[in-house]
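Explain this protein:
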Amino acid sequence: MRIGVCPGSFDPVTNGHVDIFERGGSRLVDKLIIAVSSNPNKNSLFTMEERVAMIRNSVKHIPNVEIDCTGGLLNEYVKSKNATIIIRGLRALSDFEYEFQRALFAKYLDDDIETVFIMTNNKYSFVSSTGIRELAKFGGKLDGLVPDDVKEKLEERFNTVHNK
């Protein structure tokens, strides 16, 4: 069984992420583990539990997906899951430079782990979780950029913040 891991903080999950999960999970591997992690360099908008719940709801139509939480070294996590593939989504050249360096580190640490890059669908090439949080904070239009339940959670989160 080919097992792949798609890691990220997914704060929040976007339609661009879901596109990568669909294409990576349903076409490249027998099982895709979406590994939700905390990023120590970022302040998260949503808790780990909230992010997992949003992802779970967003990928329920993909049969071969599992959602898990992780921390620490990605290579160790990948090995602990008997996976051999790390799946990364790319939007732009700047993503490639960053992800390429990470892929080289992963390869240095374990020659048996391969990193696969998937280009995002053009309609999501400008979408990032950071941009989505900013758009939501200022009441911008989120339709088509995030799953419907994520849109609702973002609107609730920022309405609560503005009403205090």
